[in-house]
From TrEMBL:
GO terms for molecular function: DNA (cytosine-5-)-methyltransferase activity. The lineage of its organism: Bacteria, Bacillati, Mycoplasmatota, Mycoplasmoidales, Metamycoplasmataceae. Pfam families: DNA_methylase. Gene3D superfamilies: DNA Methylase, subunit A, domain 2 (3.90.120.10), Vaccinia Virus protein VP39 (3.40.50.150). This is Cytosine-specific methyltransferase. Keywords: Methyltransferase, Restriction system, S-adenosyl-L-methionine, Transferase. The gene is banIM.
Amino acid sequence: MKKEVRIYELFAGIGSQFYALKKIAKNFQPISLGACEFYIDAIISYMIIHYGELTPETDFTKEEMHNLLKDFTFSSDSKNQVSKNYFLKIREDKLRKIFPYLYSFINMDYFNFKYKNSGERERENFTDIKQITKLPRNIDILKYSFPCQDLSQQGKQRGISPETRSGLLLEVERILKQNKDNLPKVLLLENVKALITKKFINDFEKWIDVLNELGYKSYYKVINSSDYGSAQNRERVFCVSFLGKHKKFEFPAKKETKNNNKLTRILKLSEIEEKTILELDQKIKFSKTKNGIFKAFIPNYTSFNSENYVYLPKGIGPTLTASGANSRLKFYYQNHKKVRYIDEIQSYQYMGFDKKVAKKVKETNLIPKNKMIFTCGNSISVEVLENLFLSILSSINIQKES
């Protein structure tokens, strides 16, 4: 019988962690013990990616669906909680389509009924981290990549405090301290590089001290996803914390074989006429950055300099973000002299998801194109997670078959 590897995802997003764990599973069985997420589009995407498409709800009235959801904490923009009557304001036909995903996320009986899957391990999902008091038993890996809005260059850099979204890290501290007799074996954090810069390093070191007092030994490093086969240059800090004794941990070595034209394959030309945003007849001079990105500046395209950069669909691509200019990455196809945005399917592939997964989400017609790209920009590189999990599992004596 295969050994189980049990994961719990705080700030789950679209579930890149569980997805990556399943992709490397050969001699172990990945099990989700639960997740916490409040962003509606992320929850719907998560459920489609990991469990499949659902038919619209037909048994409940609109008011009954509203009553079942209204007391949970949901967000329509990933930042602010929706109003108590939010679901009453939604068109009934739309509510019937999204209700099954939202309610099956938070209610296991409904999940088993809709997905016809009584064999699924009982999960404990939440939409509000402040409501979590008791963790499931025997968590192998707890992921807690708290919101980066108040740390990143795109945000206001207000730091980690009870008043900020990034301050939700303090809720993770509370949860761990309330579960001292039931702590996860491994904690995994991913966040923007700013977390370990001069401005925030004191906050980060205080956090490491908290983990140390709880019995964790922590290792952290800035990792570039392009070093592990990703199509993009995505530098993020990862922190892995082990409870008690464990085999020596080392971050995975860089892959000698680079991404083998992965960016070109992802951004291959299709429907170019439909998706063209700009035609350029003048000669554009591209330069190659130290990270292998081919970029050029188009003067006078917009009044915002950051929006005036275009990239070639070869080598390594720039970081995809949830907001700002890098949420609208523009690529120039030289032979056609046309510029087009990265689309939602390509964004999923850019983050390491399979194309069929992206198509599955898109074909439900529940998540708009811009929201699919947004959730990808907030996600974690699957390629990095795969390699990181292999190193983590080796340190807790669970290894992938060679």
